[in-house]
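Supplementary Methods. Inverse-folding protocol.

Structures were first reduced to a discrete structure-token string of length 193. This string, shown here, constituted the complete conditioning input.
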């Protein structure tokens, strides 16, 4: 299927796909807001849509001398420790510059300072239920510094692996974080690794 036929398919029909009739906040904390919206579909039928509103975050792929830096921490919703690239958001500054945020998160979680930081893409990790976008950066020319873990990150551990080992971890299921896998794919597609 060529791209022009995809566009034609998505433009079929008249009017908006969904109209929001009412929206209410169901729950909120410093990290997220859960919303429930009453909607009308294109055919006029009513519906209800629940979703999570979260600030955007960054993910950093630290790569230097043929090695990739990972972090591992306990992820409470799935009750499991998981390997991933450093990532995070600043709840107190939801409109922070993504590059500034990426540099800060990299140093916070790994102690590494990036001599070069390149934005390689933006992804929506779970757009069926969460509004959050992820800005993906490749960090190179790394030098060691002091890490500055937040209280919630006290269980965080670090590891350095080769690109081949990272690929094995993904294929064997030792690394299952969707954002990390997508970031790795972006870097490979851009021929940066």
């Amino acid at each position: 299927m060529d791209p022009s036929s995809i566009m034609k398919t998505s433009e079929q029909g008249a009017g908006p796909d969904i109209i929001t009739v009412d929206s209410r906040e169901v729950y909120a904390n410093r990290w997220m807001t859960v919303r429930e919206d009453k909607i009308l579909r294109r055919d006029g039928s009513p519906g209800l849509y629940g979703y999570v509103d979260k600030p955007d975050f960054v993910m950093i792929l630290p790569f230097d001398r043929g090695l990739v830096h990972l972090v591992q921490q306990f992820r409470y919703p799935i009750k499991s420790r998981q390997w991933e690239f450093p990532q995070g958001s600043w709840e107190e500054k939801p409109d922070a510059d993504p590059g500034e945020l990426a540099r800060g998160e990299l140093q916070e979680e790994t102690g590494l300072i990036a001599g070069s930081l390149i934005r390689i893409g933006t992804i929506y990790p779970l757009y069926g239920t969460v509004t959050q976008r992820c800005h993906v950066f490749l960090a190179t020319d790394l030098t060691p510094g002091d890490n500055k873990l937040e209280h919630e990150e006290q269980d965080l551990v670090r590891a350095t692996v080769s690109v081949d080992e990272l690929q094995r971890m993904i294929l064997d299921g030792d690394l299952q974080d969707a954002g990390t896998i997508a970031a790795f794919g972006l870097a490979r597609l851009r021929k940066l690794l």
